[in-house]
Specification:
The protein is 37% helix and 15% strand. By secondary structure, it is of the alpha+beta class. The chain folds into three domains: 138 residues, no CATH class; 145 residues, Nucleotidyltransferase, domain 5 (2-Layer Sandwich), CATH 3.30.420; 70 residues, no CATH class. Helix 2 crosses helix 13. The longest helix has 24 residues. The N terminus and C terminus are likely disordered.
Length: 411
């Protein structure tokens, strides 16, 4: 049994350390026995019959150590004696680039078993960390295909062109200053917004909408048999729809923290403003006064000292002022359980940056920004390996009761 002795400070340091103790921790935490047994029943990989567990360890090491290609992983095996010992190889018996490629093809056939590993790690973290999965954030990120999308027949037939409004990426291969274009795929993720760890994922061609993938993602993130109950689901404007907001609130009992698209043709003048706050008869936005069950309570702004009524007629003769109760069920998109103009909504929405950091780590540190694979099946399996490494590192430390390290691993 190998146990990491040195303390960990953050995920970037965990990856940068290149310690084989880290590789041992990840391999021990991965619940891959069912997958490995299934692979061992098949014909061996390569003429020399490379053993399955060693090949599996090599692929995990390549992800953990940020190898951009299989050739780079082979070179690392040749020069790192300790890593060879962890993987179970000697220098004269190392698999080559082709053997690793064939083993990856075998993994593609067992994608369902890989997903079982992912779900088991998520469930293990739910048991080890009581509040894991309470605050969820959802988003997608681009995965560039290993193919030229401008050709009449690209070498990757599953890849598609995608576009996102991303002003901070202006000038990166696009002609429109408001959009970022890429040829490839999308990785749709649900992450825990506190611990910054993945909870569910879907890989699609790049032209698929974020909005339509929110419900399938949540169904995978919160399976009925798990008994998990998220408190909050956070997303950007790309997930703004009546269907998504109603699903989050009614099916999962969670608060949808999603900005509304403030379109002019969708406004309700003299009824509510662009963010859904009702308008008093004096023309001022009413003041949110708390939630009463499935109703939002609003009061006259003048009665609470938030403005001066300019109307000739008082909205109420009561000194308490006019009170309006709005049923959330009627329109959870326009009138969510936490109104968008409250401090609580703004505080919760700030947690959305957690998924941006997860996207960055999966792509830059765990290799999804440098794929040399073609086809959605291989891209999905390679994405799974990166997510498994991230989850296994956290689960391994949680199992060793290194709670402080688990938290700062991802901050």
């Amino acid at each position: 049994m190998h146990i990491i002795q040195a303390p960990l400070f953050d995920f970037e340091a965990f990856i940068a350390d290149k310690s084989n103790n880290h590789l041992t921790l990840v391999l021990e935490a991965l619940p891959a026995e069912k997958l490995l047994v299934a692979l061992e029943k098949e014909h061996w990989t390569g003429r020399k019959g490379y053993w399955v567990r060693g090949m599996w360890a090599c692929l995990i090491a390549g992800v953990l150590y940020g190898c951009k290609t299989r050739a780079e992983l082979v070179r690392l095996l040749r020069r790192d004696k300790e890593m060879r010992m962890v993987c179970g190889f000697n220098k004269g018996y190392l698999p080559g680039d082709d053997a690793l490629g064939r083993f990856l093809k075998k993994l593609v056939k067992h994608e369902a078993l890989l997903e079982e590993c992912f779900q088991e790690l998520v469930e293990r973290l739910r048991q080890l960390v009581p509040d894991f999965g309470a605050k969820l954030a959802v988003d997608s990120t681009d995965i560039k295909a290993y193919s030229n999308g401008h050709r009449e027949k690209p070498s990757d037939p599953d890849a598609r062109w995608g576009a996102k409004g991303a002003g901070h990426r202006v000038g990166k291969g696009n002609n429109n200053g408001d959009l970022y274009y890429w040829f490839g795929y999308k990785l749709h993720l649900v992450v825990d917004a506190v611990y910054e760890l993945p909870v569910s994922f879907i890989v699609t061609p790049a032209n698929e909408s974020d909005t339509t993938n929110m419900k399938p993602l949540l169904k995978k993130a919160v399976p009925e048999e798990s008994g998990a109950k998220p408190e909050v689901v956070i997303g950007d404007k790309g997930y703004d729809s009546q269907d998504n907001c109603r699903s989050v609130f009614q099916e999962y009992g969670a608060m949808p923290i999603i900005p509304i698209r403030e379109k002019e043709d969708a406004q309700l003048p003299d009824i509510c403003n662009a963010k859904g706050t009702p308008i008093c008869s004096c023309g001022l936005a009413m003041t949110y006064w708390g939630r009463d069950g499935n109703y939002l309570k609003y009061r006259c702004p003048q009665a609470v000292g938030k403005g001066v009524c300019q109307s000739r007629f008082r909205c109420s003769t009561s000194p308490y002022g006019y009170v309006l109760k709005l049923p959330i069920m009627q329109d959870p998109r326009r009138h969510p359980p936490v109104p968008r103009e409250t401090k609580k909504w703004k505080r919760l929405y700030k947690l959305r940056t957690a998924i941006e950091r997860v996207n960055s780590r999966v792509k830059e540190l765990l290799g999804l920004d440098h794929l040399t694979l073609r086809g959605i099946a291989k891209v999905t399996v390679r994405s799974l390996l990166s997510l498994l490494v991230m989850l296994a590192a956290a689960a391994g430390m949680a199992q060793r009761h290194r709670w402080q390290d688990l938290r700062v691993l991802v901050t």
